[in-house]
């Protein structure tokens, strides 16, 4: 019995060892293919991500070809209509954009009338059109204002005032989203879907001449795919064009109004500091620049009355000083000639010479 039990135990151990060997051999044989598969997936993942956002067409308007830091290759401007300009090169820097990509905002194409570009689409899908602008000439708002029309029908940017958006010498991007379904372009505006035909697989981008100067474009790029991966401007997001119809009738915020309020605040602050006799640096923190805008006219009147009262006081003080003068104005002793100071010395020397001559004869 003991021998039978030992034999059974040995057989069980042999079977267990054989099972372990088979499992180890199986794992060893599968390890290499699994490793290769993981490495292949790891290498193909960046390619899949890159294909999720495809650059269909990109142009550096008025300039040469350029590849930006996001890998978007902009072709040289092929257009012969209008005027290409590199006036932006005289600026020391372009704000809101890395130095590598400033070239996209330094050159531009403009025209004295409406002009535009024809460029290819890439079938059905989600699209994003990035238009790059920079005001390099004007230094005030309401000097250059124009519209942008896409595919001859859709006003995707209305009344664009670059300076009013970001000022002078700063990058500004306008991003427009749309879809192409069954060869027709679909653009959402104000909650409604506008459609138009994509003729011969090409789109049209027009810059509409308005009453205020000439339309222009610095660069633009058409991308297809996952629009959530769109590159943004440096340290800030680009403006996304989603204008509601009721917003068109609202008054536009103008920089001169802000400057006028700022000047009014400075004048009022200076008047108060002059009355109290404080130094500008010490009293600067006491002035509240967040006062309500409702009482701006009242504060302007108060500042105007204070200025008038100060001018009247100054006039009265000057008139009073004129009336209290007694006698003629005394000469300034520091304005006398050097000859008047040396005259007594010359007289003393002239009197001493005869006296010395007489003493020598004695």
TrEMBL record:
Specify where it is mainly localized: endoplasmic reticulum
**Region (Disordered) location:** 233-338
* Organism superkingdom: Eukaryota
Q: Where is the composition biased (Acidic residues)?
A: 279-294
Record carries keyword Magnesium? no
Give the bilayer topology. Single-pass type I membrane protein
Domain spans labelled Malectin: 55-220
Q: Which GO terms describe its molecular function?
A: carbohydrate binding
Which regions are flagged for Low complexity bias? 298-319
**Pfam families cross-referenced by the UniProt entry:** Malectin
Locate the compositionally biased regions of type Basic and acidic residues. Answer: 234-278
An example GO CC term for this entry is:
endoplasmic reticulum membrane
Any transmembrane segments, and where? 341-360
Which terms are listed as keywords in the entry? Carbohydrate metabolism, Endoplasmic reticulum, Glycoprotein, Membrane, Signal, Transmembrane, Transmembrane helix
Q: Does the keyword Aminoacyl-tRNA synthetase apply?
A: no
Localization annotation: Endoplasmic reticulum membrane
Q: Which family does it belong to?
A: Belongs to the malectin family.
PANTHER family per the UniProt record, alphabetical: MALECTIN, PTHR13460
Protein name per Swiss-Prot or TrEMBL: Malectin domain-containing protein
Native organism taxonomy: Eukaryota, Metazoa, Ecdysozoa, Arthropoda, Hexapoda
């Amino acid at each position: 019995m003991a021998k039978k039990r030992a034999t059974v135990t040995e057989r069980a151990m042999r079977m267990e060892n054989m099972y372990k060997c088979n499992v180890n051999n199986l794992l060893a044989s599968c390890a290499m293919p699994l490793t290769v598969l993981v490495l292949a997936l790891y290498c193909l993942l960046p390619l899949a991500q890159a294909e999720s956002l495809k650059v269909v067409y990109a142009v550096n308007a008025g300039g040469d070809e350029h590849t930006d830091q996001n890998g978007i290759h902009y072709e040289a401007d092929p257009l012969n209509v209008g005027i290409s300009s590199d006036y932006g090169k005289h600026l020391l820097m372009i704000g809101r954009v890395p130095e590598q990509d400033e070239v996209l905002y330094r050159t531009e194409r403009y025209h004295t009338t409406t002009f535009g570009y024809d460029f290819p689409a890439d079938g059905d899908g989600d699209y994003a059109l990035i238009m790059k602008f920079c005001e390099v000439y004007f230094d005030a708002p309401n000097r250059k204002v124009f519209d942008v029309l896409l595919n001859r029908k859709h006003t995707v940017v209305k009344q664009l005032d670059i300076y009013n958006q970001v000022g002078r010498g700063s990058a500004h991007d306008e991003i427009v989203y749309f879809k192409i379904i069954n060869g027709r372009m679909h653009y959402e505006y104000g909650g409604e879907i506008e459609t138009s035909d994509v003729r011969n697989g090409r789109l049209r981008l027009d810059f509409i001449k308005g009453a205020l100067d000439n339309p222009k474009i610095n660069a633009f790029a058409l991308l297809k795919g996952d629009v959530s991966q769109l590159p943004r401007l440096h340290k800030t997001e680009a403006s996304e064009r989603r204008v509601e119809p009721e917003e068109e009738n609202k008054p536009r915020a103008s920089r001169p109004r802000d400057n006028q309020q700022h000047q009014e605040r400075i004048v009022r602050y200076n008047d108060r500091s002059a009355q109290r006799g404080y130094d500008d640096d010490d009293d600067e923190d006491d002035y509240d620049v967040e006062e309500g805008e409702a009482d701006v006219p009242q504060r302007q009147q108060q500042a105007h009355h204070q200025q008038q009262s100060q001018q009247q006081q100054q006039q009265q003080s000057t008139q009073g000083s004129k009336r209290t003068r007694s006698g003629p104005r005394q000469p300034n002793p520091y304005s006398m000639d050097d000859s008047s100071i040396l005259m007594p010395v010359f007289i003393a020397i002239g009197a001493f010479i005869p006296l010395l001559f007489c003493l020598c004869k004695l």
